[in-house]
Amino acid sequence: MTDLAPHELRVLLAVGSERGFSAAARALGMTQSAVSHSVRTSERKLGAVLFGRGRSGATPTAAGERALAHARRVLRLLEVMAAEVRGAESGTVAGPLRIAAFRSAALHLLPRALERLAALHPDLVPEVRIVREVGRGAAGEVLDGRADLGIATIGTSSPVPPRLVGGVLVEEAYALVHPAGHPSPRSLPLVDWAENCTSYTRRWWAEQEWLPAATVEAEDDGAVLSMVSSGFGMAVMPELSLIGAPPSVEITDLGPARPTRTVGYVTTPELGKSLAVRALVRELRAVRRPV
Q1: Which segments in the chain show pLDDT lower than 50?
Q2: Which residues of the chain are in CATH 3.40.190.10 domains?
Q3: Is the dihedral of CA 18, 146, 140, 66 positive or negative?
Q4: Fold adopted by 87-170+262-286
Q5: Where in the chain is the domain with CATH 1.10.10.10?
Q6: What does the alpha-carbon distance between residue 189 and residue 12 come to, in Å, rounded to a whole number?
Q7: Helix (H) or strand (E) holding 77
Q8: CATH no. for 173-260
């Protein structure tokens, strides 16, 4: 098999992004026939159909989705190579650093780490995307080549995916959150959000006879905290989500059997060796306990 050239990878990504050959051609400044020829050549080299063609445009097949993920990662490695080669003599780290993180991690773990990183490497430009930690979550963004590093929930119930590497940053406990001064907080309706539970916490919840099914599922932990603060109900939330909680809520320890959530970082084996990712991991470890 003949390897795909970088320009062929860029054509595949354009077709995948634009969902069509004509739109990809316009985005790349090419003719539609040139784009179609490039895709057919790539498909012949890889031995698989990468896009389904139809009236609705070009839709990546299962093989195509995998090819697009590899294309993003390969092109990103070429960018990293260029940046590190240029900075080799000066010892500087420059260029974009793409980070995916769920909301509370982006709010309470990343800022101090990025502040320290900026002081050491002012030419490094972090690009942070907040993603929902459901389904493939932040780890999926890394696997798909959309992020260099993801801050994700990991551990025995949500292990680091086999094609990634990572490590633990924070082990956070869950607590009961309820309106301050309420005489019987456990009698209140339960407010929850989709990102809250791992399989371990779901098992713990199922064992708690006092916990009812969630009455309301909010968009995120900020909305849950706001509802609890207004007296709407109670919630069981992890520590990161409770940083900066208003005085109108009370946080009650759930005891030694309380559930915990492991938050860590994930990256690819290749990018894990890059100067920028290694620098960020060092700073995340240095500030792993939020203030």
Answers
A1: 291
A2: 87-170+262-286, 173-260
A3: positive
A4: D-Maltodextrin-Binding Protein; domain 2 (3.40.190)
A5: 6-69
A6: 50
A7: helix 62-86
A8: 3.40.190.10
pLDDT of residue 111: 95
Cβ contact 156:207 at 8 Å: no
Q: What's the pLDDT score for residue 87?
A: 80
Measure the N-to-C terminal CA separation of the chain; round to a whole number of Å: 53
Residue 51 CA to residue 43 CA, distance in Å, equals: 9
Phi, psi of 260 (to 5 degrees): -130, 165
Give the whole-angstrom CA distance, residue 6 versus residue 8.
5
Q: pLDDT at position 269, please?
A: 95
Task: Please identify, in words, the CATH class of the domain defined by 6-69.
Answer: mainly alpha
For strand 165-179 and strand 260-267, is the pairing parallel, antiparallel, or unpaired? antiparallel
Whose CA is closest to 262, among 160, 129, 146? 160
Asked if 129 contacts 147 with a C-beta cutoff of 8 angstroms, the reply is yes
Burial of 55 (0-12, 13-18, 19+ CB in 10 A): exposed
Q: Which amino acid is at 167?
A: G
